[in-house]
Automatic annotation (TrEMBL):
The protein's name in its UniProt record: Hpr(Ser) kinase/phosphatase
Lineage, broadest ranks: Bacteria, Pseudomonadati, Pseudomonadota, Alphaproteobacteria, Sphingomonadales
InterPro entries associated with the record: P-loop_NTPase
Top-rank taxon: Bacteria
Amino acid sequence: MKMRTTYMAYGLRISSEIQFPQLAQKSYDDVDLSITLGAVPSHLTDPEAILQGGEFAENELLLSAPGIGRFHVCDGKRITVEPAAGADMQSLHLHLLGSCAAAILHQRQETVLHASCVTRGATTFTLCGTSGAGKSTTAASFVLQGYSIISDDVTLINLDNGPIAVPSYPQGKLFRSSLELLNLSTDGATELRLKPDKFARELGESYCDRPKRLDAIVFLTISDSIHPQIRKLNAAETVRFLHKKTFRKRFIGKARLPEALRKWSLLAEQVPAYHLTRPSAGNSIDEVCSLVEGALAGTHG
């Protein structure tokens, strides 16, 4: 029998045959997600859609990553992994804690945003955006101001007991340029093989492992403006942005889309949202942070 270790990530109790050094080990009698090593089918029996690198059905996802492995994600509670010959664990971890975790959460009909989330005192907010929008860099800048990180890049929002930001796991990722911008060292960081010049960093004491009520959503986009600008969104605009900034949205599927739309609408009604545009060139990180804090204090929009 293969050795299993239990962990917590994205609010899920996980039992895994793959070791995750970036996750805190926990002890559980019952688990929500099981990760096993084994054979993965070549195709799904009745796929709803053929995706780049995989196949999708209502409660199944088949993913293939050349040179890394193949992944079968089922029923919101099982992931089977068939590593490629010579695959490195770091790359397997990136897929399992990224795309595969998103698929599991979508199968469980959770709200999953392409966002980082930070908290300090009674204030918790997400920074949403596509890759390159500045989510992780802005979050890291807030950490330097005394905030803690709940999640980096992928944020789960639970709406069952109010809009709650759920901790992901205690690791952040930043490009070398962002580390230099914030005067942070690469000491102790690990360069990602799949994303050269990007580094994984353990968050340590700057990680918040407690769920927090969400106070605001900030959508980040890049523009040709000279200075960053922020404005408050109405509910309809917020729903459109939530749709666009959902992480791995293609994993939702037709059958779950009405429930996803209901939750986006509920979130838009309960949490104020803002759209912040930042210049594509230059260093505007201090202005961005100031605008966000000003909006949250009620001085904007």
